[in-house]
Amino acid sequence: MPRRFVASAIAIAALTLSPVMHAQAPAGAQGRQGRGGGGQAGGRGRGAPVPAPNGQNENIHIDGWNKKQQSLQATGKRPGPAPVHDLSGIWEPVPGYRDGVFASGPKDMPSDPAHEAALPYTPLGKQTMLSHKTGFGTNIAPISEINDPFDNCDPIGFPRILLFNLRAVQIVQTSNQVLMLYQNTRTFRTIWTDGREIPKEITEPRWFGYSVGKWTDPTTLVVTTAGLEDSTWIDNTGRPHSDQLVVEETYHRVDELNVELTVKITDPVMYTQPWYPLKNFRLGMNSPDFDIREMICAVSQQALFNQLLKNATDAGPEKK
Amino acid sequence: MKRLSHASLLLLILLAGSTSLFAHHGNASYENKEVSIKGKVTQWLWTNPHTFLMLDVTGADGKVVHWVCENNAPSTLVNFGFTAKTFKPGDEVTVVMAAVAKNGTPVGRITRIILADGYVMNSEVR
């Protein structure tokens, strides 16, 4: 009996973990790419369909100009040594370009009962967390009750720009700045590397704060950010922060084609000790001709989205 | 020990069930249930954070039900061959949803779309 239970449980878990299995097409159905696009990525036209495994479309990865792309390492290029004091390039999570979506919380601190219990909340931190009604994680709520500020297109803010939908990011360096240009919400950050310190007194909290960067060795940039607007959430699952939040990002250029990102959260108002949402999260270099596509939170589109889905939670017809 | 392993498995199942392919709103208003509908496209909204395919479905009694079918974000769907011009009003499609509104309103989440010629357009591969 226990064995049968275990077998059933494993089967259910396998089915649940593999949405793909629910998505199998009927026999004879065929997948295709590039329907309607006609771009370089859509190699197959209607006249030459090729059956896809399990009836699925092939998961191609294309950039904003409809060009098929993959990380340079995935193309077979062997990485050279890490250049000195240089993060410039167009980067994306690897091995999967969607590995930074983190809908249910960042990779090293997902929002599940075990990790929530481990998060060192202060009483105010816990209370604030519980007041956040989210689309994902332990505070998941019906759509009409969600109070995520990003659902109204408030700026995603920092550090959520790193911890939710971290897609492509272009890093540009000048003599005194490191600029981060993000796909998500098409926003950017300025990190000053001219030796300045974060202002002692913050007279204007900012959505993306005040950032300074220091090279701690030839291939490691440590960025400190403070002065953050406290109405944003740390991640997609409602982790709170105060205006005392200090975020430390460590970018370690492992080699020519790879960077590892570690993020440390310190906020004595909300947490009794620092914690790490990401540890050595890998970003891979893309081709220099990779065009970062738009991913914009448009207020009118978001309002339409909210309205359409509100019907899913409003009192509807009697369920049959 | 056996109890522990059963508990772990159950936890695994619950955790797996709580994940979603979608990145904004979660699953709380939906129930996981595969529902297939066939109808005519009235609108294809290529919008953030998610796209929508609107569909008129005529029942056996001749009554038309207007479905709102949520699909993934444009930035994900482009990798599966979707574009802003994939559908136009009047296209006949079969939409398979992996989850539908708990309250019975005709709202659901697309897992795949079968075109009139049999092509299958999936929204996600995991």
Number of domains of chain B: 1
For this structure, what is the CATH class of chain B?
A: Mainly Beta
CATH H level of chain B: which superfamily? Nucleic acid-binding proteins
Q: Approximately what portion of the residues of chain A adopt beta-strand conformation?
A: 15-25%
**CATH fold name of chain B, please?**
OB fold (Dihydrolipoamide Acetyltransferase, E2P)
User: What best-fitting shape of chain A do the alpha-carbon axes yield?
Assistant: globular
Elements of chain A, N to C (H/E): HHEHHHEEEEEEEEH
Regarding quaternary structure, what we see is heterodimer
> Order of strands across the widest beta sheet of chain A?
1-2-3-4-5-6-7-8-9
Q: Do you know the CATH architecture of chain B?
A: Beta Barrel
Radius of gyration of chain A in whole Å, from Cα? 22 Å
Structural classification of chain B: alpha+beta
Order of helices and strands of chain B: HEEEHEEE
Q: Low-confidence stretches of chain A at least 5 residues in length (pLDDT < 50)?
A: 1-56
Q: How confident is the prediction overall: mean pLDDT of chain B? A: 82
With strands numbered from the N-terminus, the spatial order across the biggest sheet of chain B is 1-2-3-5-4
Topology record:
The complex is a heterodimer of chains A (320) and B (126).
Chain A lengths: L1 H16 L1 H4 L66 E5 L19 H6 L4 H9 L28 H4 L5 E5 L3 E6 L5 E5 L17 E8 L2 E7 L19 E10 L2 E9 L8 E11 L13 H12 L10
Parallel strand pairs in A: 4-5
Antiparallel strand pairs in A: 1-2, 1-9, 2-3, 3-4, 5-6, 6-7, 7-8, 8-9
Chain B lengths: L1 H17 L11 E16 L5 E8 L5 E8 L2 H4 L14 E10 L5 E9 L4 E3 L4
Parallel strand pairs in B: 3-5
Antiparallel strand pairs in B: 1-2, 1-4, 2-3, 4-5, 5-6
